[in-house]
Design goal:
It is built from 3 helices and 40 strands. It has 4 domains: 116 residues, Immunoglobulins (Immunoglobulin-like), CATH 2.60.40.10; 118 residues, Immunoglobulin-like (Sandwich); 142 residues, Immunoglobulin-like (Sandwich), CATH 2.60.40.1530; 135 residues, Immunoglobulin-like. 8% of the residues lie in helices and 50% in strands. Strands 20, 22, 24, 25, 26, 28 and 29 form a 7-stranded mixed β-sheet that branches. Strands 2, 4, 5, 6, 8 and 9 form a 6-stranded mixed β-sheet that branches.
Length: 633
């Protein structure tokens, strides 16, 4: 047992004894008082060290960016409040559109085409100047509301408008429109607020009612017609006031499926523009237009008539509309129908090649709710290229004197009594004359089919009413546009020798029969062993060679009718052949197929034809001999 444990046990024993023995325990040691002397003030290194630590601990942290931003925001807010208080206390010098008055004085009614004088008054009720003020006047150019064209008068530079000042300006406008229509005049004031470079605008619209148009238009058409049936409609232009200065025309915009036939008087430009320069107050101009509409049952077709001044750059277009109107015509089924199909197609117009066979079919039907008796169908065939000897009906009688085919109940029993909804088909064939080799040139070659169908419809009692219908088809004949190609020996080895050069001249010659061809072009490709030399000296045709595609291209352009018969058109160029040893004994090609294309101006059809390749067999070369075409060693 250690000494410490012995002492603890001794204390425990004494603690529980009846007699006090603890107070008499022995002392272990004595504590002695120690005196320390403290200085009366801070001195020495201890002071300096404490100062340094104190300064270090008391150093302020750096101010953040957010704190600077907050301070600036507060400053700006205070400044704004101060400025507002200043402006409020001084009555304010800001500019507001609400304090600008624009008043228009003048007649709210005007005759179309006549000059209308107006007075514009501008009042500045702001307490600041309106600087660099300009007055702008804009109004519709014509009578057509859908037009975006407008007239803008020259800017009226007013200058500075002082507070409380009133400025007056006189303007003149010329408005067009239908009777009782409203035209809006837009008046704008552009200005700079005092001390600002910004541009502001104050707008005002002044409505004017057109009391009468300078000229009136009237169109008289049937409300409904049958598809592809001839019909006519009348358009009348009458002058109400003085005709405005300039060239005045009437223009009719037809629907896309309207076929124009004729008009009285004849149009001055194309088939839709008439000159109205002779129009006077006592001399209206009536126009009768004839044509056909093609469409399905229930289709609505719209005609749009304009009258006004022409465009200086295009005399066939109305640039300033004095008056306009729309007319709608409904297409409905005919009571007795005779539909013409050419080569199994139902089109307004057809194209066919000269000398070719043409198949026509008439599909007839009774669209009435009652039967039709004693029906008769007549097909008249005419045209400047019709081969009368080729007309061959499957049924019916062909009258060659009058050039017509007649079908009735004698040839087709069903035509004796046609029940409601009944229908049938009849057909015939014919040919056009070939346009090649004709002694006289034919302009606009075509064949016209006029078909009429008629019958009797029972009326009250034992009476009958006539029912009839007409149809027409035009077959336009394409011009015979061809190219001939040939070659002849020029220089070098003859016959061609392997790995040696032989040069040939190539000639392309055009022929064209009846119609003008536009945008014509011929092209062909040179084989890999043939090289381009160049255009023959003296040739004026536009011939190019593309080294990448190896194409020879002749940009022909326009080709007149009868080319190749009365006049010629040809192109010449030179190529060189350098055959390989692998071609010994063969007849190589000098050029591949020649492709010709162009647009027939009469039929508006793209014509294409192909001529076969040219070889070393020079059949058109007088000096050519048998064996000169094969490659030798």
């Amino acid at each position: 047992m250690t000494e410490n444990n012995s002492k603890i046990e001794d204390i425990k024993r004494r603690l529980y004894e009846r007699e006090d023995t603890i107070s008499e325990r022995p002392r272990e040691g004595v504590l002695h008082q120690v005196t320390h002397k403290a200085p009366e003030d801070w001195q020495g290194g201890i002071k300096k060290a404490d100062d340094s630590n104190q300064n270090k601990n008391m150093k302020k942290p750096s101010t953040s960016i957010l704190k600077y931003f907050f301070i600036l925001a507060v400053v700006f807010f205070i400044a704004a409040i101060g400025y507002a208080i200043y402006m409020f206390s001084n009555g304010g010098v800001s500019v507001s559109n609400d304090n600008i008055d624009i008043t228009v004085l003048g007649n709210a009614f005007a005759k179309g085409g006549e000059e209308l004088p107006l007075q514009v008054e501008i009042v500045n009720r702001n307490k600041a100047n309106l600087e660099l003020a300009n007055l702008i006047v804009e109004y519709p150019k014509g009578a057509d509301d859908s037009s975006t064209d407008s007239v803008i008068l020259p800017y009226d530079s007013i200058g500075t408008i002082k507070p409380g000042q009133s400025v007056t300006r006189d303007i003149k406008v010329t408005l067009f429109g239908t009777e009782q229509s409203t035209r809006n005049i837009k008046i704008s004031l552009e200005y700079h607020p005092e001390g600002s470079n910004a541009i502001f605008s104050k707008d005002k619209e002044y409505p004017v009612t057109i009391s009468s148009a300078p000229l009136s238009l009237n169109i008289d058409t049937p409300t409904s017609i049958s598809s592809n049936q001839p019909f006519s409609f009348n358009v009348t232009a009458a002058l109400n006031t003085t005709l405005p200065v300039g060239n005045t025309i009437l223009q009719v915009a037809y629907p896309s499926n309207f076929i124009f036939d004729s008009a009285i008087p004849a149009p001055s430009i194309g088939n839709s523009v008439w000159d109205l320069s002779s129009l006077t107050l006592t001399n209206p101009i009536p126009i009768i237009i004839k044509g056909r509409l093609v469409g399905q049952d229930g289709d609505e077709q719209v005609f749009h008539v304009y009258a006004g001044a022409t465009n200086q750059n295009n005399q066939s277009i109305v640039s300033v509309v004095y008056n306009s109107l729309l007319q709608t015509i409904l297409i409905s089924k005919p009571f007795l129908e005779a539909r013409i199909l050419v080569n199994n197609q139902d089109l307004p117009e057809y194209t066919a090649s000269g000398g070719g066979n043409i198949h026509a079919e008439i599909s007839w039907a009774n669209n009435l709710s009652t039967k039709i008796t004693d029906a008769q169908i007549i097909a008249s065939i005419s045209g400047n290229v019709l081969d009368k000897s080729s007309v061959s009906p499957s049924e019916g009688f062909y009258d060659s004197v009058n050039s017509q085919i007649i079908w009735d109940k004698n040839s087709i029993p069903e035509l004796g009594s046609i029940e409601p909804g009944a229908r049938g088909d009849i057909s015939f064939n014919f040919k056009s004359l070939s346009l090649v080799g004709l002694s006289n040139a034919i302009k606009d070659p075509q064949i016209i089919l006029d078909v009429s169908i008629k019958g009797r419809q029972p009326s009250e009692g034992s009476t009958f009413g006539d029912v009839n219908n007409f149809n027409k088809k035009v077959i336009k004949i394409l011009s015979d546009f061809q190219i001939a190609s040939s070659a002849n020996y020029s220089s070098g080895e003859k016959p061609p020798k392997a790995e040696s050069e032989t040069r040939y001249n190539v000639n392309w010659t055009l022929s064209n029969s009846a119609n003008i061809i536009t945008s014509a072009q011929a092209r062909s490709v040179l084989p890999i062993y043939v090289n381009w030399v160049g255009v023959t000296k003296g040739s004026t045709e536009n011939i190019t060679y593309n080294e990448v595609t190896r194409e020879v291209i002749w940009n022909v352009g326009t080709v007149k009718a009868s080319t190749g018969f009365g006049s010629t058109r040809e192109a010449s160029f030179q190529i060189s052949l350098k055959p390989s040893a692998s071609q010994i004994g063969s007849v190589p090609q000098l050029m591949k197929d020649v492709y010709l294309s162009g647009t027939d101006s009469f039929t508006s059809t793209l014509i294409k034809s192909t001529r076969g390749p040219i070889t070393t067999t020079l059949i058109n070369d007088p000096s050519f001999q048998s064996g000169d075409d094969r490659v030798v060693r």
